Structures are given as structure tokens and as C-alpha cells.
Amino acid sequence: MNDAEERSEQVLRSGRWFDGDGVRSFSHRARTRQLGFLPEEHAGKPVVAVVNTWSDINPCHQHLRERAEAVKRGVWQAGGFPLEFPVATLSETFQKPTPMLYRNLLAMETEELLRSYPVDGAVLLGGCDKTTPALLMGAASAGLPAIFVPAGPMLRGHWRGRTLGSGTDMWKYWDEKRAGRIGDREISELEAGLARSPGTCMTMGTASTMTSAAEALGITMPGAAAIPAVDSAHTRMAAAAGLRVVELIRAGTTPADILTRDAFEDAITTVLALGGSTNAVIHLIAMAGRCGITLTLEDFDRIARTVPVLADIRPGGRFLMEDFYYAGGLPGLLARLGDTHLHLDRPTVACRSLREQLADALVHDDEVIRPLERPVAEQGGLAVLRGNLAPDGAVIKHISAEPHLLQHTGRAVVFDDYPSMQRRINDPDLAITPDDVLVLRGSGPLGGPGMPEYGMLPIPDYLLKQGVTDMVRLSDARMSGTSYGACVLHIAPESHVGGPLALVNTGDTITLDVPARRLHLNVPDAELHRRRQAWQPPPPRYGRGFGALYEEHITQADTGCDFTFLSRPGHVPEPHTS
Questions:
Q1: Which of 96, 126, 128, 177 is the most exposed place for a label (fewest CB within 10 A)?
Q2: Strands 47-52 and 121-126
Q3: Cα–Cα distance between 243 and 349 in angstroms, integer?
């Protein structure tokens, strides 16, 4: 049997729309002719959904319109039939109050799009922070063959002979302006030099952390995560993904075959070895949940105690994603982790095993990707904290904090929400000192709403001018992956639902002990009980719409902030098409 005969005998899901003599099949074929397609172009061929998060308002995805064409080229060459589907774009820069509010909306849109249309598989195009987990959550729930194309990092920034990292240097130089060490002219120049091309942040922020996690999971082409967005290799990778997805469809390989427990443990290992974003904790827990796999904060803390940080990338290190790519990218880093830390005999979308995929991987710069015997840090750059202030856990990226703050007791200065914090942080009457602990509440999944990236609370201007660059800061919010500092995040349960953070008063003392994994409010239990009895829950924020749906179904940070009705197991029937 030749290839054409084999393809003609393959039973395709899309055939339920197009094959047969019924009126519905006739109607579907007629409308396909209306679109300008010949029968020979699609009949009997795998139909591939090219799911594209491009938009005019998302600079991270500015180039994905062109990359979609490369994906289509690959699909055509492999004998498939590509159809491009626009979906919601989650722009970290512009969408308020936070794209995290809408991650589950994009996941739901992706799942239902793939289920309700005549497609046999999908190529998912994205990369901006929440887009990667959203697309993969939706594809995992839909269960069709899928492959992810990361948007890729932007080119490095430049300013007055200095190399800039987006996000990280934004925070750094904005503090320099607040401290009076640079002025409007310098800020204007920085605006023009910080982000120079399409693509995601070129530091190890949330975007590159999550695309690297996707590559470690085995759901991308090899090396895809680190390719700069504007590099011609990125276009070739997109075309290769189009070719490969047709092969996945013919083989019947679905995300369930790739996204296994071992794969998620390797993704955690990868995030930790990269010194990656704390946001990965929430996203990986949610992604695993869609695959029927329970990840907990303890899994992250357990693996963090054994995995060294090998990538010397900002914000915790010195280099940028372009340097990482030229040094060997994620294949180089994974090869160095090897059997000691990874499950190399599991499949990926590109190879029979991760071991095979990494067989030729090399590292070309031992400063950017360190050898195991000379790591950036002996343990992964993330710790999970518990205590009476965080009974369900909290996280800290301690590799990005000043070491002397990792065991610290200080007076709490409490802000009930982000707007009031912005108004009051520089008030001299608060008498904030470098030893105080800044506390922000009302910023969790419900309180934010959407758990915005408020966790890197600003240091008061008058302390910046004195040279203070870090303080202990606590919140139920998240933090940008490009940020840094002694910031305790994701405190669960959040204050909005009556978590202990709601009971903290200014003047209380709080103890942070990262080596002991402890976060403690030094207030007697009887007094905490009295405060709890007096606490009143805030009223619902939304009376209708998506916000009301969100409030009714969102889970807490330690369980991934998914919707209850999306994360639970259960059968979803295929649509009736005839």
C-alpha cells in the first residue's frame, strides 16, 4: 500500500463533518467550496487547527501572523490541511487588571474550539506569560494531537553601552529614577532601548520559564523555547512543527501520551535549574491537573532541594535568553541534568524518548550554562514556606533575594490593597525602616482580582535614596518573573477568603526563615481567634459576566487557580455532526 492509499484509509475525526451522503456533509462541503478550497486540497487529509494568539496589542506575539504561515507551509508539505483560528490574546503588558484573570478563559476557548470544529490536531502559537499554560491546558482537555510553538524571546536591549533585560532592568532603572539618580532624559532613552523586537521578555521571566517548561514536557520541537523570535531558525521551527503535527495525527499521539507524571516532574526540575519564575508553580499545578495528575507545593520543594541552578540568566544571573540560545539552549541544559535529575526514557512529540532527543545536545559556554560541579546555586532557586501565616503554603524565589533577609524578623506594615499601598508607601508618618516587613493583602485570586503581579512591593523612595535595595515583602499576589527581591508570594489561603493574612495588623512581628521553610506571625493564638471572629468577608466584586463566573469557580494558588468545573475529571461528549 502506498502513502496515498494509506492516507485514504485513515479514519479522521474531521471526516465526520465532510464524509458521507447526508445533508450536513453536503452542507459542510459546500461551505468549504465557499471558502475557495478545492476538494483535492482537504478531502481525506488531516485537518490541523493553527491556533494563533497574535494581535495588534500584544508585542510578544507581533510576529505570529507570519509564523502561522510557516506552520501552514509545514502542514501542506506533510499532506495535511491547515486552518488558522484566532483566539484571545493575553498581553502581559496591556491587559488589566491582569491576564491571569483570563488564563482560564483562553484555556476554555481553546478546548471548545478544538472540540467543536472539524479538526484532527492542532499547532498552538503563543508565549506571553499566561498564554503557554492556557493553550496547553485547553489542548490537554480537548485530547487531540497537539504541538506548541513558543513565540521566542526578543533581542537583548541596549542603552549607553549597557545590555538591558526587559522587565528586570525596567524595575531597576525605575527605582534609580525614584531615587533621583537618573532623570527624564535617561528614562526616555530607556523606553526606546529596553524592548527592541517582537518576542517575549529576554530574561528568565515567566514567558521563557513557561516555554522552557513546555519544551521540557516534550510538547515542542527540540530547542524551540530559546530561539530568538526574529531569528530565521524560529521560522524553520514553526514549519517543522507543522510537518510534525501531521505525523502525530497519523500516529494517534495525543497530549496524554506526552504529558505524564514523569514529564511534569522534569518540567519542575527544568524550572528550578533555570532559576525560573515563581509563576510556574501555579501554572504547572493547573496544567498537570488537566492531565489527571496531582502536583503539590511539596513536589516543588522536594525537587528544589536536589536540583542545582545551572542557568546564569537574569533576573537571578548575568546573561539573557539570546546568550542562552547560543550557549546550547534548553537541550544543552537538559543534557547536563541527565539521568541524575531527569526521566530520559519518556516520549516527546519529536522523538521516541527524551534521551534520543538530547543525544547530540552540547553546551558551548560554561558561564551561561554551568557544569553540574560548578552551579550558580547548589539548590533550585525556589522554596515553599508554611506556618501560621501560610497554612496552605507560600513561595519565595530566594535566589533573587539579598541573603541576609532569608532569616529575618521584623515589624509588619500592612496595606489592605494595592491602590492604598501606592498612595501611602512614601508617607513619612509610616516610619518604615529597612528592617520592617511590608505586607500587602487583598491581591490574591479573588481579592486582586486575578492575583495580579503586585508582589514586588516598592521600597519607599526615602529608603531607596539611602541605598536600600531589598526588604522582606509578603503578599497573596504573584510577582513578575522578571522581578527580584525577598518577596514571599502566593500566600494561601488568601486574605479575601479569610486566610491568616487578613488578620495581620501593623505593628505585629513576622518571622521569615527560608532554611526552615517557615513563615510565622508572632501573635498568640487567642488573639488571632479574636481577630478572626471580628473579620467580615468583603462583598462580591462582580454582579454578572465573566467576573462573576470567575468568582464562583476559581481555586486558590496552591491548587493552580483553575476553575472547578474545568479541573475536575469527567466525560465531555463529542459533538453530533450529521
A1: 96
A2: parallel
A3: 12
Sorted by sequence, the CB contacts under 8 Å of residue 59 that are 6+ apart come out as: 91, 93, 195, 198
Helix extents (H) in 364-471: 418-424, 461-464
User: Which residues, other chains included, contact 4 with Cβ-Cβ below 8 Å and sequence gap of 6+?
Assistant: none
Q: Are 75 and 48 a contacting pair, CB within 8 Å?
A: yes
What separation, in Å, do the N-terminal and C-terminal C-alpha atoms of the chain show?
31
pLDDT values of the chain reduced to their tens digit, one per residue, 578 residues? 444 444 445 799 999 999 999 999 999 999 999 999 999 999 999 999 999 999 999 999 999 999 999 999 999 999 999 999 999 999 999 999 999 999 999 999 999 999 999 999 999 999 999 999 999 999 999 999 999 999 999 999 999 999 999 888 888 898 899 889 999 999 999 999 999 999 999 999 999 999 999 999 999 999 999 999 999 999 999 999 999 999 999 999 999 999 999 999 999 999 999 999 999 999 999 999 999 999 999 999 999 999 999 999 999 899 999 999 999 999 999 999 999 999 999 999 999 999 999 999 999 999 999 999 999 999 988 999 999 999 999 999 999 899 999 999 999 999 999 999 999 999 999 999 999 999 999 999 999 999 999 999 999 999 999 999 999 999 999 999 888 899 999 999 999 999 999 999 999 999 999 999 999 999 999 999 999 999 999 999 999 999 999 999 999 999 999 999 999 999 999 999 98
Contact 207, 109 (CB under 8 A): no
> By the 8 A CB rule, do 440 and 424 touch?
no
pTM, two decimal places = 0.96
**Strand 407-415 vs strand 509-513: parallel, antiparallel, or unpaired?**
antiparallel
Three-state DSSP class for 75?
helix
Q: How many residues does the chain have?
A: 578
d(CA 465, CA 459): 10
C-alpha cell at 526: 487567642
Q: Which of 190, 151, 155, 154 is nearest to 171 (CA)?
A: 190
Which amino acid belongs to residue 547? G
> Residue 126 CA to chain centroid, in angstroms?
11
Cell 532569616 appears where?
Answer: 407
Residue ranges of E strands in 71-114: 81-86
Residue 55 near residue 133, CB atoms below 8 Å: no
494 in Cβ contact with 447 (< 8 Å): yes
Q: Give phi and psi for 342, each to the nearest 5.
A: -125, 160
Task: Enter the DSSP assignment of 559.
Answer: G
What nine digits make up the cell of 518?
A: 517557615
CA 425 to chain centre: 29
Name every residue whose Cβ is closer than 8 Å to that of residue 174 and which is 6 or more positions away in sequence: 187
Q: Residue ranges of the alpha helices (H) in 218-328? A: 232-251, 255-258, 261-274, 279-290, 297-304, 321-327
In what side-by-side order are the strands of the sheet with 121-126? 81-86, 47-52, 121-126, 146-150
3-state secondary structure of 118: coil
Which is nearest to 269 in space by CA: 318, 309, 316, 298? 309
Q: What 3-state DSSP class applies to 466?
A: coil
